[in-house]
Amino acid sequence: MVKSNELENVTVPESTLETLNRTLYNVEQLESELPEFLSNSDPDLLSQLPLLQRAQSLFTLAKLTSTLFQLKLKCRGINPIDHPFKTELDRLSLCQRKLERLPNLTEEQWQDMLEKKMYQEQTGQKRKYPSSEEQFEEYDSKEFVEKLPGELLGGAGSSGNSIKDAIIIDLSSDDDDDDDEVITP
Q1: CA gap 162, 165 in Å, rounded
Q2: Rounded to whole angstroms, what are the CA distances from 139 to 36, 145, 148, 150?
Q3: Rounded to an integer, what distance in angstroms lies between the CA atom of residue 75 and that of residue 20?
Q4: What is the C-alpha separation between 10 and 95, in angstroms, rounded?
């Protein structure tokens, strides 16, 4: 801890003092306006707003909270970019871009759009064609089913045996290694 008589001999640059005074002024201003803003984030009040305005209000509240937390980290000497909180900032940036791209629709237009989306999801019309992952899974399962009888019954290249190898089923617990049951044809 620094003693008061040691601080008397230290000179603080004028630019640092100006920055600190400006920050103090902004914090005092925020302190006076924050209760009013938080009262406007009441869930009952927000539920009465149109969807786009509600989304923008909630985004603004999230942005304010994130900015305050980011300021707290900086005041403690922690770089917010190196903090796990960075993912939250990235998520907010993504939300901001999405909100900016949304058209300015009326409440009825939003409801129509939501109803169409829900109808498409219920009837399975969301995607007309299967995704590439589903195609690969379908192909792999078909290939597996086609090859399965040949592998089990000693298809091409087999020495004529009806089954290639014995199937070993271990019914013992980890303690008993000598009770392996071998099933042969």
Answers
A1: 9
A2: 60, 10, 14, 18
A3: 11
A4: 46
pTM above 0.90, yes or no: no
Distance CA 91, CA 86 (A): 9
Beta bridge mates, 182:
168
Whether residue 124 is predicted with pLDDT greater than 70 in this model: the reply is: no
Nearest in space to 106 (alpha carbons), one of 156, 53, 70: 53
Question: Are 47 and 81 within one domain?
Answer: yes
Is pLDDT at 76 greater than 60 in this prediction? Answer: yes
| Widest distance between CA atoms in the chain | 99
With respect to residue 59, please indicate whether it lies within any of the assigned structural domains.
yes
- 172 three-state secondary structure: coil
Residue 69 shares a structural domain with residue 135: no
Q: Which domain holds residue 125?
A: 107-152
Non-local CB neighbours of 79 within 8 Å, separated by 6+ positions: 73
Please give the tally of structural domains in the chain: 2
Cα–Cα distance measured from residue 118 to residue 112, given in angstroms and rounded to the nearest whole number: 10
Q: In Å, how far from its chain's centre is CA 2?
A: 44
In the block, residue with structure tokens 């044809």: 185
Task: Assess whether pLDDT exceeds 80 at residue 2.
Answer: no
